[in-house]
Amino acid sequence: MIRQLSLLHHLLVASLLFPGVVCGQVAPLIANVSARQITSLDGQWQVIVDPYNVGSIDYRAQPLKNNGAFYKNYKPQSPSELVEYDFDASGRLDVPGDWNTQRGSLLFYEGSVWYKRSFDFAKSPKERVFVHFGAANYKAYVYLNGEEIGRHEGGFTPFDFEITNQIQTKGNFLVVRVDNARKSDQVPTSNTDWWNYGGITRPVTLITLPESFIQDYSIQLQKGSRQQITGWVQLNGSQLQQNVSLRILEAGIDKTFQTDSRGRAEFSFNADLQLWSPETPKLYKVEIASLTDKVTDRVGFRSIEVHGTDILLNGKPVFLRGISMHEEAPTRPGRAWSEDDARTLLGWAKELGCNFVRLAHYPYSEAMLRMADEMGILVWEEVPVYWTIEWENQQTLRNAETQLKEMIERDHNRAALIIYSVANETPISDARNRFLRQLIDDAHSADPTRLVSAALQPSGATQAGRVTMQINDPVGEAVDVLGTNEYIGWYNGRPEDTDKTDWTSKFSKPLIMSEFGGDALFGYHGDVQTRWSEEYQESLYEHQLAMLKRISFLRGMSPWVLKDFRSPRRTLPRFEDFFNRKGLVSERGERKKAFFVLQTFYQALHGAPLSQ
Ligand code: GCU
To answer: Residue whose CA is closest, atom 12 of ligand 1?
Structure first.
C-alpha cells in the first residue's frame, strides 16, 4: 500500500530545509491537478534579474522587510520617493520556461530572478484556493499580495500553497523569487553534466476546491497480484468522515467506502482487468467521488516484480529496450515541459524500438509520465542524487528524501512507472552507503508496489588479456534491480575492448545497463578510429551490443543518450560547444548512424528474449 506524507512531516521537512523560516500554508501535494477546476497563470510574467539579491537583503546582508523588498511590488507614492525597482518596466519571460534560453544574456546566468504575475480572481466564500507549481529550479520563495506564502527547495518536483485567506477579487500580485545558485550541500550538488536551467520551468495553476476535497488517492494492483486492486483515498478539509465512491464502470466496478476520522479510506478488492503493457497500454477511466468533491483519472493496471535475475511484467519476463534522456525540448533550446514535448521525445524512443526510457537524472514533468502511460513506455524515474553529494550532511539527506517522496506522491498512479532510482554514479563509502540505503528504504516503504534501483559503477580486473567487470557495489544488496553505467570505448579504452570483456555480478539480480555510449558530432565523418565521428560512435554501439548480448543476467539497457544536450562541462570547440554529443539524435533532431544500429538491434529483439 502506497504511504502518504502527513502534514506534520511536510512542516518538519520545511523547517529543516529553510531553518528559522515559518512557512505559510505548506500544503500536502494535491493529486491530479489537471483534472480539477483550474485557472492557468502561464504566459508572460514580468521579471527582475537580481544577481546580488538586492530585492531580498540589504547591504548588510540582512533580510529586507520594508517596501524595498521586491515582493512588495511597491510604487513611489511621490516624485521624491526613492524606489529602485519596477516590475512594470523590467521586461518579461515566458512561464513555463527556463530563463537561460529566453535571453542570450541569461544563458549562463545562475542566481535569483524575480517573477511577478498580476491577476483578478472570483472565488465563492465556501471555496478554497491553492497555487500549484509544476516545478521551479532550484529554490522558490513565493509571495502573494506582499506577504510570504511559502518556500520550496528542489528543481524538479511540484509544490502547492493554500492561498484561500490571502487571495483578493481584484489586483492580486503573485511574486516568486527563483534562485538556481549551485551549492555543494544541495541535491543535486554543484557539479553536474547538465545545464542548470533556472526559472519557473513548469506550469503554474490556481486550483479552486470545495472546503472538503479529495486531496490524493492511490489505486494500483497489489504487489505480485494481477487481480487484487488495493489503494486509498485521502480527504482534506473539515468533513473528513464521508462516503467515497470508486467507479471503474468499464470494469464493472462501482464501490463505496467510508473515510475515517483522518479522512482516509483504504480498500482492497478483486477485479477482472485488461492489464496495461507496452503492447497494450490500456487505461481505465477511474472516478472517485465524495459528498463534496469528484476527480476523474486515467489509470492502467499492471504488476511488476523481480524473480531471480528476471524482471516480470504482468507475470512474464520482460527485456527493457531503453534509452536514457534529459528533459530538454526536442526541437527548441531549453527545458521540455509540455505534452507535445513529451509526445515527440517518447515518439523518438518508440522509433528506436524502445519499450522503456530512463528519465535521467531528476523527475520530469507529470506530462511526461502521463504520456508514457498513453504511449505504452515503461519508465525509470530518478532523484538527482548525482556524483559527489554531501553524504554526512543530514539536511542534504532530508532534502533528497523530500524530493524522492514528492516524486512518488505525484506519480504513484502511473502504470508506466516501474522503477525508482535513488542515485547516479556515486562514490562508495560508508556514509554514502547509509545515505542511499535510507533512500531505498524510504522508496520501498512509500511504495512497495514498484522496484528500486540506482545507477552504480562496476569494478574491473584484467587477467590473461581478458577483462572481467564485476558488479559488487554494496548498495547492490539493497536494490531490487541493478543499474550500471560503463563507458568502455569512450572514457575507458577502445570500442573493440568490449570483445574481450566479461561481466559478473555479486548479486543474483537483474541488471539494466543504465548507461554506455560515446560522442559524435552529427555530420562529422571519418573512420571507426576517429573520435567524434559518426563512424566511431556506430562502431562503439556495434561492439557494445555484441558484449551486452553475452551478459546472462542482463534484462535491460538505456544507452546514453537519446539526444545531444547542453552541458557546461563540454567546452571543446567545434565538437562540443557546450553540448554533450553522446546523443543518437543531434540537438536539431538529426539521426546519427548509431541511431540505426540500436534501432535494428531493438527491432530484432522485439518480442524475443536476448539470445546469447
Ligand atoms: C555519466 C553521467 C551522465 C553524463 C555521462 C557522460 O555517466 O551519468 O550524466 O552525461 O556520463 O559523461 O556523458
So the answer is: 193
Looking at residue 5, its pLDDT comes to 44
Residue with cell 578510429: 529
Instruction: Name the closest-CA residue to atom 3, ligand 1.
Output: 193
225 phi, psi to nearest 5 deg: -110, 155
Ligand 1 nearest atom to the CA of residue 519, by list position: 13
In this structure, the strands spanning 139-144 and 147-153 are: antiparallel
The predicted pLDDT at position 2 comes to 46
Residue 468 corresponds to which cell in the numbers above? 572481467
Which portions of the chain are predicted below pLDDT 50? 1-23, 612
C-beta neighbour count of 339 within 10 angstroms: 15
Q: Please give the helix or strand (H or E) that residue 12 lies within, else none.
A: helix 7-17
Could you tell me how many residues make up the chain?
612
Q: Using most ligand atoms within 8 A of CB, pick from 358, 383, 425, 514 the residue to mutate for ligand 1.
A: 425
Q: How does strand 310-313 pair with strand 304-307?
A: antiparallel
Contact 544, 498 (CB under 8 A): yes
Q: Residue 369 is placed in which grid cell?
A: 509520465
Question: Which residues are CB-contacts of 451 (< 8 A; sequence separation ≥ 6)?
Answer: 304, 305, 306, 311, 418, 419, 420, 480, 481
At residue 1, the pLDDT reads 42
Taking the centre of ligand 1 as the mean of its atom positions, its distance from the CA of residue 571, in whole angstroms, is 15
Ligand 1 centre to CA of 361 (Å) is 10
pLDDT for the residue numbered 609:
57
Q: Is the pTM of this model over 0.85?
A: yes
Cβ atoms of 420 and 447 within 8 Å: the answer is yes
For 276-294, give the DSSP string.
Answer: P-SSS---EEEEEE-SS-E
Q: What is the DSSP string of 524-587?
A: ----TTSTBSHHHHHHHHHHHHHHHHT-TTEEEE--S-SB-EE-TT---TTTTSSEE---SB-T
**CA 326 to ligand 1 center in whole angstroms:** 11
The H-or-E segment that residue 62 falls in is: none
Q: Determine the pLDDT at residue 140.
A: 98
Q: Three-state DSSP class for 48?
A: strand
**Best of 456, 580, 581, 584 for a ligand 1 pocket test (most atoms within 8 Å of beta carbon):** 580
pLDDT of the residue at 100 = 98
Separation of CA 193 and ligand 1 centre (Å): 6
Substitution site in 191, 388, 425, 560 for ligand 1 pocket (most atoms within 8 Å of beta carbon): 560
Helices (H), strands (E): how many in the chain? Answer: 7, 34
pLDDT digits (tens, 9 = 90+) for 538-554: 999 999 999 999 999 99
Task: Give the per-residue pLDDT at 237.
Answer: 97
Ligand 1 center to 516 CA (angstroms):
9
Question: Measured from the CA of 361, which atom of ligand 1 is nearest?
Answer: 9
3-state secondary structure labels for all residues of 101-156: CCCHHHCCCCCEEEEEEEECCCCCCCCEEEEEECCCECEEEEEECCEEEEEEECCC
Q: Strand 356-359 to strand 378-382: parallel, antiparallel, or no bridges (unpaired)? A: parallel
| Gap between the Cα atoms of 442 and 436, Å rounded | 10
